[in-house]
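Justification of resources, computational component.

The compute hours requested in this renewal are based largely on the per-chain cost of generating structure records like the one below. Each record pairs the submitted sequence with a full structure-token output. That output is archived, and it is also reused by downstream analysis tasks.
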Amino acid sequence: MKNRNKLSRSLVKNYIFFSITVGVLVIAFSLLFNFRLIYMLGTDSLSEIQASDIVRPNIVDIPTANIELLEGWVEILDEDLQIIDVKGNKVDSPTVTYTERQLNQLFYDQDDNPYHISLAPFVTNEGQTLYCLIKIPKENLRHSFAITSKAKETTHIFWGVLIETVITFSLLFIVSVYIYSRWTASRITNPLHQIVEGIKHVASGHYSKRIDFKGSYELKQIQEHFNVMADKLEKTEREKRELAESKQRMLVDISHDLKTPITTIQGYVEALQRGLIQDEEKKQNTLNLIHNKARLVTSLIEDVFDLSKLESPDYPFTTEVQDITEFMRELSAHFYMSFEDKQFNFHYEIPASELLVSFNNKLLFRSLSNLLSNALNHNQSGTEVQLKLMEGADHVYIHIADDGIGISEDNRIKVFEAFYRGDQSRKSDGGTGLGLTISKTIIDLHKGLIHLDSSQRNTLFRITLPK
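The structure output for this chain reads:
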């Protein structure tokens, strides 16, 4: 939560800095624009409209822009009061020369005169004395004074509006900061908080934790990958737990399967030691029974050892490209007499042409032998057994089928588990219970698949191997 608050504060600080910078720039530009406008309205409107303000030694340099802006004009008179130059649009009588009386009347009759009059003498660079006469319509001049007064009033209004603007901006800024912080929390800090909590759960071993939030594309990618990771970890943990339980069951089963025949062997040996069995034929039968039990114990230990080796990641598994059709014919020949002796009907279908596949000869022989041995040992005489090899585009298919007693539906999913013996209720003489487990492990090492199809009167093992 502390780190989450740090991130939120950092984002809010950045937002505040950005907002204040933008606000200061906006206010600065507003001030610059409004002061320039006031200057134009207030200062420029009343400057350089009096004759004394614009006279220059050089007639060309006399500024008349503001006078002409007010629709007035400038007349330059010589010493004889004759007009020698006009600047602006002269609209009154076309007078060329003034008399002293006419000139005086311009100043004395101000109420009747529609023009504002301004006169100033000046000396040119050549030493000549001239007069600058300005005429501006009073109506336009009054309007100019009104604008100037308006500008002064506008200045006071501007400062009032500026203060109101600053206050409004401050209030809106505070509201926007609050909204932004809430939005940031919902869009960024809240998802990050969920991610952190999810990581803590996974780190503590609770792999069932999943995260779900609404956020940006990048955060959704983190959510998706986190959930995928959690799924894999949960699956791995479940498999690890199942493996530990399986190993525990295996230890119990091994101890049970070793204890039963060893107890039987000890009992018969003790009987022989005490002379409880006197008949030679019974002694021989007892010795044969002891020998069979010892072979069963030896077979169990060998199978456990072999399975342990096959499941080890360091097992040196190697394959070689060879003709699998020849391999299948050798396998068929190996079991042919055994099926004949028990009066089984044994059929095989193997292609005549060469079929090259990469496999381990010894291990694949062990895997398929276990399947054929099960068919041989767990069915009655007259059972039909079929061995079939087929070629596909990228795989080869091996089918081992029989029409014997079959495997019940409840037991089909268990046949590849260690120490499973079908419905024999763990009889000690039912084999080691590791045959099919070893077969499946070998097929897995070949990166193949093995599948059981079975009904009450039919059992079919389908094996798929890559070419």
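The first strand starts at residue 73 and ends at 77. Residues 40-45, 423-429 have pLDDT under 50 and may be disordered.
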